[in-house]
Amino acid sequence: MASRDDIKFLNNPNIGQQRKKYCRFKKYGIKYIDYKDPEFLLQFINEQGKLLPRRITGNSLKYQRKVAQAVKRARHLAILPYVADLLK
Amino acid sequence: MRNYEITFLIDPVLSKEDIASIPDTYTDLLKKAGCNIVHADNMGLKQLAYPINKRTTAVYHCVEFQTADSAIIDKMELSMRRDERIMRFLTVKLDKFGVKYNEDKRAGKIPRKRVEKEAEPAPERKSAPTQASSNPKKEEE
């Protein structure tokens, strides 16, 4: 019987396990999202300027809503675009 | 006592004195109504993300103030709407976290650059550096 180290699987049992997604606001204790800060908000929009879904960013619902509100405010003030191309 | 923050955009084609006098007129309006101005920030000339009124740049101003009387907000907004030199404005009521964030930002506690950091010493301040929270890039797409 081969030792555990020698056993090679055809299908790696660890495949499909990804980095655990977490809400960065909860983890780092960030309570306020500034709408005037485009570099920070760029993390939450894709290169077309659209908001990224929560399942991609890992945000909790509360903070995803705050992010969305901040992005929409930034868009109103022309700090972020509504529609874009190759934003990043 | 409520904290508000109003950000407004001024037309850049005006003369320098005009551009400098506009935020002063509004801060005076606020002071006369008895608000105390916490901070008036000239964010300067910036590129707009999309053209407004055919202009591609604007001078951004942000005024943070405290007031007990919220009727002044309506008056201010009305005068801003009437003022043709102001292209856009946004009034926001700041909650305690917003106030704290602004204070920390002015005190320089919030680092501008993205720093790879693990846990922030959160106990001392509620709003930890927003920039510093970057982790190995989350999948953006």
Features:
heterodimer, A: mainly alpha, elongated, B: 141 residues, 3 helices, globular
What's the layout of helices and strands?
The complex is a heterodimer of chains A (88) and B (141).
Chain A: H1 24-28, H2 38-41, H3 54-57, H4 61-76
Chain B: E1 2-10, H1 16-32, E2 36-52, E3 55-67, H2 71-82, E4 86-94, H3 96-106
CA radius of gyration of chain A is 19 Å
Q: Which residues of chain B form runs of ≥5 with pLDDT under 50?
A: 115-141
Report the sheet with the most strands of chain A, covering strand number, pairing sense and barrel closure: none
The multimeric state of the shown protein is heterodimer
Strand adjacency order, main sheet of chain B: 2-3-1-4
Write structural notes for this entry.
The complex is a heterodimer of chains A (88) and B (141). The termini of chain A are far apart. The model of chain A has no long low-confidence stretch (mean pLDDT 88). Chain A has helices at 24-28, 38-41, 54-57, 61-76. Chain A has four helices and no strands. By secondary structure, chain A is mainly alpha-helical. Chain A is elongated and about 70 Å long. By secondary structure, chain B is of the alpha+beta class. Chain B is 28% helix and 34% strand. Chain B is built from three helices and four strands. In chain B, a hairpin with a 2-residue loop joins strand 2 and strand 3. Chain B is globular, with a radius of gyration of 18 Å. Residues 115-141 of chain B have low confidence and may be disordered. The A-B interface holds A 19, 21, 24-25, 27-37, 39-40, 43, 46-47, 52, 56-58, 73, 75-84, 88 and B 7, 9, 43, 46, 48-50, 52, 58, 60, 62, 88, 90, 92, 95, 97-98, 100-101, 105, 114, 119-120, 122, 126-136, 138-141.
